Hints:
Number of strands of chain B: 10
Number of domains of chain A: 2
CATH topology of chain B: Rossmann fold
Structural class of chain B: alpha/beta
Mean pLDDT of chain B: 84
Shape of chain A: elongated
Structural class of chain A: alpha+beta
Number of helices of chain B: 7
Number of strands of chain A: 13
Mean pLDDT of chain A: 83
Order of helices and strands of chain A: HHEHEHEEEEHEEEHHEEHEEHHHH
CATH architecture of chain B: 3-Layer(aba) Sandwich
Order of helices and strands of chain B: EEEEHEEHEHHHEHEEH
Strand content of chain A: 15-25%
Largest sheet of chain B: 5 strands, antiparallel
Distance between the termini of chain B: 26 Å
Radius of gyration of chain A: 30 Å
Shape of chain B: globular
Oligomer: heterodimer
CATH superfamily of chain B: P-loop containing nucleotide triphosphate hydrolases
Number of helices of chain A: 12
CATH class of chain B: Alpha Beta
Largest sheet of chain A: 11 strands, mixed
Amino acid sequence: MLKFAIKNLFIKMVQTILIVLSIMASSAVAILSYNVSNQISDGLTSNAQYYSLIVGPSGSSTQLAMNTMYFTDDPLGTIPYAVKTELEADSRVKSAIPFAMADQYNGYRMVGTTTDYLEGKELKSGAMFDNTTVFEVVVGYTVAKTCSLKIGDSIYTSHSEGEEHHTPFKVVGILDRTYSSFDNICFTQLRSIWEVHEHEHEEGEEHEHEEEHEHEDMNEMVCAILVKAKNPGVAMQLKDEFTKIASYTVEGETKQYSIQAIEPMSIMRNVLEDTDQNQYIIYGLTVVVVLMNILVISVVTLLNMKASEKEIKLMRLIGISMGKINLIYLIQNAIIGLFSVVLAFGLSRLGLLAMGTYALSKGVVLNGSVIYFPEIILLVGVFIINILPTLIWTLVQSRKDGLK
Amino acid sequence: MIEIKGLAKKFKNELVINYKDYKFEDNKKYILLGASGCGKSTLLNMMSGIISPTRGQVFIDGKEITSESQHAKDSFRIKNIGYIFQDFKLIEEMTIMDNINVLRIEGIDTSGTAELLKKLGMYNKRNKKIKELSGGEKQRVAIVRALVKNPDIILADEPTGNLNFSIGETVIKELTEVSKAKTLIVVSHDERLTKYFDVVINMNGMTSSYEEETKNA
Lengths: 404, 217
């Protein structure tokens, strides 16, 4: 019976392909949009909840949060490292983690921080960099894979698009895959970021004046400080106190710095509100596409079944029961439905992969292996919708026997 | 043996065809002659359970089939009766083999297909689609489909109706040849074919008293 049903589908190849394509496209769009929006939401909120505050230079709070937690965009600027010392001295603060983003290796950004920043991250091989030793680097999974790095290798970083620094970093660890933006970053001790530039000066390298100035600015400076408060209730107080214009002395020079403190969760909620609105638009469009498809599938199926009446009558005449005939058509539509949803799922994963590269450049990691339960529900729903018209048709046909 | 008793069929246009009681004996070849509308095909359809009589009964080997459910009649027909239709009733887009293998849906053994196709000279075309065949070839395929299940009864409704006489005669020769030791009842309007049959029944009142006595439409 299955063989006959498959042969029958091959005979109606064009209709079959059109139905499969139609179901596949709409279902893939529906689950892809659901998956992407949820992965973005999950990704944005998962990191944000670790920190009570982020302290950094004044400017766009969203840029500060996104740069510090997802390595997107450029840092807003720098603030003195002394702010970190000040925060650590505060009895309300549990920990303050410095964050500096300066150079890059093969397009992958270097982040100077402490091992606390990588708390909870597993190593695939090697060890964490030593907080007291400079020029050790732990690379993300994708960095190691793409650049074929192994423990003990030396890498040379460069400033922006400029020439490579002459001081090598030693790869001491490779992070296990996190399916997050951490996979694309090289992490080192904060002082390494400062000292790599000092070394250049000592070696008497020729630098453009502007670049030299920039490098000097990095010394004893950080892009941000991630703060964990002892008590969530004090975050607001700290936020108010550390949003200020204050004087700090860096390398003997006293300057005024405009500093802001932000609550990452609150920033992310704002970002998500915008995302949610887009999400609702996507959901709405998806529902319209799915409804249109239900209509198309129903009409095409019923027209197909109508066109098959002669064939059904023929089978009835040679003695094949109505039950078996109905079963053949149900099997046919089940095959169409199954193919469609499997292909839709495959297409959505390909979509995730294709979007992943672009999303990564924006700091958003889309993991193709993440499946949400509602996606499965949607695919099962599409499968049922696909066989429903046939089921109704066969029930009607069973009542008015083809022979009569 | 097929026996009809008090059989009558009333149509929507109020036309009533009455049939005389009759017994079709085993292993004999019958030809039912008569003009269109005299009730030849209706008789075959009632005997095979495709349609139900308005009254009367059909017994096959002593078993009454007219009172059975449609499902039971279908089941009986596909297993025990080889029915050959005037317009072949083949799925045009499918191959010869597919059209015969369609019987497998109801669990019919079609392992004898190759042998029958060879007998009728169709084996080399077994993978051709029906739409690519001539009328004579299509009728041969219909014969193979009817005979492959090795039924004791073969009913053929105008098997030469869509063929020219020469081809039709060849088909009848082949049909009678492959239906040896079976009960074959053929409906036709072509009297030239009678020589191939054991019993000729004229339902038009031309050559057989059977028709005159039984048909009171």
